[in-house]
Design a protein that fits this description.
By secondary structure, the chain is mostly beta strands. The chain is 0% helix and 51% strand. It has no helices and 15 strands. The protein has strands spanning 4-12, 18-25, 31-37, 43-49, 63-65, 71-76, 83-88, 94-97, 104-112, 117-123, 134-140, 147-148, 155-160, 167-173, 176-179. The strands form four sheets. It has a four-stranded antiparallel sheet with strand order 1-2-3-4, with no helix packed on it. Strands 5-6-7-8 form a four-stranded antiparallel sheet, with no helix packed on it. Strand 5 and strand 6 (71-76) form a beta hairpin. The N and C termini lie far apart (50 Å).
Length: 180
């Protein structure tokens, strides 16, 4: 691969047959998740992003391998909004968008592999609120069951209980002291 900016996030398959890594090409216009066969050294592309401007590798890179599956959760701005996508890690096929809409995923807080649920932070959820207010949601890996866990007008900071069944929410804004 020519002119890498970075090569990181190395991951060995449980059977040690191959490993994968994130390749960010200099110029940040190509981001690939590559896989190398441990016996032959053959390199293949699992996921590739080639945005028309650049890939925001500093703030919008998320890769999660779902335990006991070949599935990979990948973050991308390909729709014009930052969202999550589920891929087949063996074939590189897109299985489904996990999130979608006229809002953005800011970050992922927790992936419950066993339950198949992602807890995440998002911006631009409520049209009557400042689009930079942070809200929290959860969704199933297949993209169903989207639930917004916060709705009050402000930026939210939540703490999930270890089970994920409960949320402690504190929100505020410039003209409102913190409310829990």
């Amino acid at each position: 691969m020519p002119t890498p900016w970075s090569i990181d996030r190395f991951y060995w398959e449980p059977d040690s047959s191959r490993f994968s890594f994130l390749y960010n090409q200099r110029g940040h216009q190509i981001m690939r998740l590559l896989s190398m066969d441990a016996q032959t050294g053959n390199l293949s592309t699992i996921i590739e992003e080639t945005p028309s401007t650049f890939f925001d590798y500093a703030n919008k890179t998320f890769i999660h391998r779902v335990a006991n599956t070949q599935q990979i959760i990948w973050m991308s701005e390909r729709s014009g909004y930052n969202h999550l996508y589920l891929y087949d890690g063996a074939s590189g096929s897109l299985l489904n968008p996990v999130t979608s809409g006229n809002w953005v995923v800011r970050s992922v807080d927790k992936v419950d592999d066993e339950a198949g649920i992602i807890h995440f932070r998002a911006l631009g959820i409520y049209p009557d609120q400042d689009p930079y207010f942070v809200h929290f949601g959860r969704v199933r890996l297949d993209g169903s069951g989207l639930v917004w866990l916060t709705s009050a007008n402000g930026t939210h900071d939540v703490t999930l209980s270890p089970s994920g069944d409960y949320v402690l929410d504190t929100y505020s804004r410039a003209d409102l002291p913190p409310v829990t």
